[in-house]
């Protein structure tokens, strides 16, 4: 594991952007799965400045690694809606470069990735409960590939914020790349910011490997890069 600790969110975002850009600029086809959420907002702003309308980045194909079936007016699920808003549209990424996981094709998604040559990189955050991608505590097993997860009442409470507090929009399930699918990627990049993530980062990186903290499995990946700001890294003992 490579650990990169930066002073603050801006510096952490810059380092994450540089990692992505160094992967993308290779003179070959590159496949990346990227995350939505709050943490990557600045990373994507910086990346847009580097890649927008530059044909030499047409070698990159993007994947979403999970999807929540709450559809916008264009028919995109919640994850793709946010990826469009944060990165794809501002960077003017061609639809030909985007391979979507949906609630309808998730059973074929691992085959789609294999046929594309596998994933060179996955960029992911970590939840306060230790989840990565859509793998919440005790919802998947280590051997799971891309799966559908049925939402419990507790999960529906967590999803309520994702749908603006409208209980009628809370879905009964979501789909996600499971641990086995994620661990097959050639390079994993995990990033986090803020004191609120410090304890779960410690558990995930220095604690036992357990389904109670799903991200703990990432310790076993042979090419894991973790990018943190000082606050998120503040409880680690091995820096």
From TrEMBL:
Pfam families: Glucosamine_iso. Its EC number is 3.5.99.6. One of its GO terms (molecular function) is glucosamine-6-phosphate deaminase activity. Keywords: Hydrolase. Signal peptide: none annotated. PROSITE patterns: GLC_GALNAC_ISOMERASE (PS01161). Transmembrane segments: none annotated. Gene3D superfamilies: 3.40.50.1360. It is an enzyme of class 3 (hydrolase). Residues 16-219 form the Glucosamine/galactosamine-6-phosphate isomerase domain. NCBIfam families: PRK12358.1. This is Glucosamine-6-phosphate deaminase.
């Amino acid at each position: 594991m490579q650990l990169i600790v930066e002073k603050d969110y801006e510096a952490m975002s810059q380092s994450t952007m540089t990692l992505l850009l160094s992967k993308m600029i290779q003179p070959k086809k590159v496949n990346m799965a990227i995350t939505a959420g709050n943490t990557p907002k600045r990373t994507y702003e910086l990346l847009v400045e580097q890649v927008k309308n530059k044909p030499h980045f047409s070698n990159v194909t993007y994947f979403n690694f999970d999807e929540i079936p709450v559809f916008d007016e264009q028919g995109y699920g919640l994850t793709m809606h946010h990826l469009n808003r944060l990165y794809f549209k501002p960077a003017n990424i061609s639809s030909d470069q985007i391979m979507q996981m949906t609630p309808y094709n998730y059973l074929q998604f691992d085959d789609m990735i294999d046929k594309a040559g596998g994933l060179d990189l996955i960029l992911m955050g970590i939840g306060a409960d230790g989840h990565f991608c859509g793998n919440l505590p005790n919802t998947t097993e280590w051997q799971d590939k891309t799966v559908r997860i049925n939402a419990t009442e507790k999960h529906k409470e967590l999803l309520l914020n994702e749908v603006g507090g409208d209980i009628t929009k809370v879905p009964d399930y979501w789909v996600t790349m499971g641990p086995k699918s994620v661990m097959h990627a050639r390079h994993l990049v995990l990033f986090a910011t803020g004191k609120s993530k410090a304890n779960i980062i410690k558990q995930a990186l220095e604690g036992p490997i357990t389904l109670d903290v799903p991200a703990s499995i990432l310790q076993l990946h042979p090419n894991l890069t973790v990018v943190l700001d000082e606050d998120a890294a503040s409880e680690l003992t091995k820096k």
